[in-house]
Design a protein that fits this description.
Layout: H1 2-22, E1 26-30, H2 34-40, E2 45-49, H3 50-72, H4 74-100, H5 107-113
Antiparallel strand pairs: 1-2
Length: about 130
């Protein structure tokens, strides 16, 4: 599995390098449209390579998807926490009920729960010692 992951990462790196080399042209990015930029008192332009624009856009898209999914799953996490608390509460309640309503000891179960060294051999009844 580690080898397959290494091959995948190497292939991904090769593709990213190829995209970067094919898109080295400098592009001008503007924060606002031309008319709005003049109204705000500046053009706010930046010149960057095209591959950088592609990679940053991809990273921002991935980040937006991650945040969106995290927010979508908030209800699921909340319900899971509530159920975990309820399970702990019920387990504590069962433990308290077991302690408070302990059944009387059954002789047969007491014999079965003894260590094997103290248990009589099967098929032989223990007779009281003769006096």
């Amino acid at each position: 599995m580690r080898f397959i992951r290494l091959i995948f990462v190497a292939f991904l790196a090769l593709v990213l390098v190829a995209v970067a080399l094919a898109n080295r042209q400098i592009v001008t990015l503007s924060l606002f449209p031309a008319n709005l930029g003049q109204f705000l008192g500046g053009t706010w332009l930046v010149a960057v390579p095209l591959f950088l624009v592609i990679f940053v856009a991809f990273a921002l898209g991935m980040l937006a998807g991650l945040v969106w999914e995290w927010m979508r799953e908030a209800k699921i996490r909340k319900v899971a926490r509530q159920r975990d608390r309820k399970v702990v509460q019920l387990e504590n309640e069962v433990g308290q009920l077991r302690e408070s309503h302990a059944a009387p000891r059954d002789d047969v179960l007491a014999i079965l729960e003894q260590p094997s060294a103290k248990r009589p051999a099967p098929g032989r009844a223990q007779l009281p010692a003769a006096r």
